């Protein structure tokens, strides 16, 4: 992990991550402050650029410790070539990794800066994720179980309470990638791209 002065979305530098393959091979940059006071909805926005298509195996690019779930991670990453949320405590995914569920998500575009933003409600089971300001249908948890999308995710009824924000790369099998992160923001109100 390095600060890259040759590649940036805005300004003169970005965070470069050389993500490697291999089980639990990980590298993350993390907040130094507890973010649990942010809310009641936690909004995160970042720009990311990467070089290799998301693999079939599970990877994570964002991890957030969840105080409401034993500090186990909420992870935003990918599987089966598309974006997904994963919950470390029970390995639940949003969307479900069925063909119908994966079809409700999208791949992360290659070799260009893209804006990822998400919102996590800390008072009820509700989450949303947007890619370049377009809501990703498969990464939408509205609290009402929907087959192939949030039914599995809603098996846990306690809303999350993130305490950290970590950006980087974690592989759980095959999958290496080079990523750049820039213009990261976190707050209690929506943050536009």
Summarize the structure.
By secondary structure, the chain is an all-beta fold. It is 2% helix and 42% strand.
Q: What distance lies between the first and last C-alpha atoms, to the nearest angstrom? A: 24 Å
Number of discrete helical segments: 1
Oligomer state of the chains in this structure? single chain
Query: Could you give the order of strands across the largest sheet?
Result: 1-2-13-4-9-10-11
Percentage of residues in strands = 35-45%
- Which structural class do you get from the secondary structure elements? mainly beta
Number of domains: 1
Series of secondary-structure elements, N-terminal to C-terminal: EEEEEEEEHEEEEE
Average pLDDT figure: 96
By CATH, the topology is Jelly Rolls
Percent of residues in helices comes to under 10%
Secondary structure: number of strands? 13
CATH architecture: Sandwich
The largest pleated sheet is described as: 7 strands, antiparallel
Pfam family, one: Polysacc_lyase-like
Protein name: Cellulose-binding protein II
Domain Cip1-like core: 2-188
InterPro entries: Cip1-like_core (IPR048955)
What does this structure look like?
The model has no long low-confidence stretch (mean pLDDT 96). The chain has a single domain, classed as Sandwich (Jelly Rolls). It has 193 residues and is mainly β. It has one helix spanning 99-102; strands spanning 2-4, 14-19, 25-30, 41-50, 59-66, 72-79, 82-87, 93-94, 114-121, 127-131, 134-135, 166-171, 177-187. This is Cellulose-binding protein II. It holds the Pfam family Polysacc_lyase-like. InterPro entries: Cip1-like_core (IPR048955).
